[in-house]
């Protein structure tokens, strides 16, 4: 009997030695969701920086035809990921990840100068509540809002981006369905998941005061950056570093 116990103990010790020390928990899957008047290419520099750090990155291509449609596009990407994902949303995509972030494999939410509604609230209602209406955003005959003029795009979205880059962004911009702003989030994932928020202090698209209020409202960990609304283009290194810190912190969250 004693020989059997000793043999079992030796076998267990050998197995543990072979397995080696347990590595730190990490969130390696990152899903990036673009906002209105943009597409997945707006994440290009941030994506490259995160990939160099070993992260598995996917940029969602939102149709921008409605909240439900954008959430569905994001969920299709999440379904292809593992059981630990960091979900990142810029601007309008704050609403998208607030809904899509309820997926069980999402471990944390990162908001970049984002609109973050509460449960049973639309973006339009949020902006009304904050006395920050969307001025000058009139839909065309098809119900779409455009920002395809480079001058207007630079003024509203990208004041610290070089003109040549602004022209490329405006050329690739996707129109936004006006009705999307009226669709309500069913359950806000930030109530249940840890969140991070990057405030852009030189923002002409979403007032910094609204962003700072959002940080307090959702209890997010935050930093502030002297950037236009398009921080992911004008400050990709800082944005990638912020996302990486969130990925590291999300890994240790129960």
Structure write-up:
A 6-stranded parallel sheet has the order 2-1-3-4-9-10, with helices on both faces. The chain has a two-stranded antiparallel sheet with strand order 5-8. The model is unreliable at 1-24 (pLDDT under 50). The two termini are 41 Å apart. It has 10 helices and 10 strands. Strand 1 (29-33), helix 2 (44-52) and strand 2 form a beta-alpha-beta unit. Helix 2 (44-52) crosses helix 10. The protein has 254 residues and is α/β, with parallel strands linked by helices.
Topology:
Elements: H1 2-19, E1 29-33, H2 44-52, E2 56-60, H3 67-78, E3 85-90, H4 93-100, E4 106-112, E5 121-122, H5 123-129, E6 144-145, H6 150-156, H7 163-172, E7 176-177, E8 184-185, E9 195-200, H8 208-218, E10 221-225, H9 231-234, H10 236-251
Helix pairs in contact: 2-10, 3-4, 6-7
Task: From the structure above, extract its key features.
254 residues, alpha/beta, six-stranded parallel beta sheet, two-stranded antiparallel sheet, 10 helices, disordered N terminus
